[in-house]
Amino acid sequence: MLFIGAMMIRAILNQKTPMRYFGETGIISWFSCLQLLILAGLAWKIYRIRKLSQVETKGKHAPQTLWKLIAIGFFFLAVDEIVQIHEATDFLIHWVFQIPDNSKFLQLDGLIVAGYSAIGAYILYSFWDEFKQYRSAFYLFIIGFALKATMVLIDVSTDDQTVFSSWFTDPKSHKLMYDWVQTVEESFKILAEGAFIAAFLVCVQIAKRMTRAEITNYSRNQETGDRRQN
Fold first, then answer.
1. How far apart are CA 221 and CA 223, in angstroms?
2. Does residue 122 surpass a pLDDT of 80?
3. Which residues 6+ apart lie within 8 Å of 147 measured at CB?
4. 67, 117, 148, 164: which has the highest count of C-beta atoms within 10 A?
């Protein structure tokens, strides 16, 4: 939050467009990439912890698989933040189907990002038996998803740069307004990632307690079984 505020104040004091810092591949993009890599690392840590679990899955998904998929997903998002894979995909679709760049019919950039979130939600649903055990972190996940949804909504609704043309006749004022809206969008993204980091830190502690208890119960059951055999 302080970092976002500092970048905004710096843009105002230097009389620069905020997109100098909040634009694609700007300093905020690199900061977002760092946060996404932290999320990937935390998810991988939980994966390693849950891999120690002795719980029998009985045909169900192994509990650690959820966290491996999440780690891979956030690593992909970190790469996408810098390489702009979703932007390239948007451009490719427009090129293949010969859709004009200024077409209001199909603005895919925000929809592709929304698709990432939909895939993540499906993965959580598929591994609900594992994920529901982290209920004490749910409020942080809810905050994160709410912030992310707000970001996507802003992205989709302002994908067309002429959206403010009826409010501002001066091109310079129009461009500045659009840049500040994009800055707000990027700010919601950074805050969402921060909420997810807080949630994952809670999940790490839950995973440790849960795995420790499962290993203890497994050892006790093994000892009980050995005694019965003897």
1. 5
2. yes
3. 188, 189, 191, 192, 195
4. 67
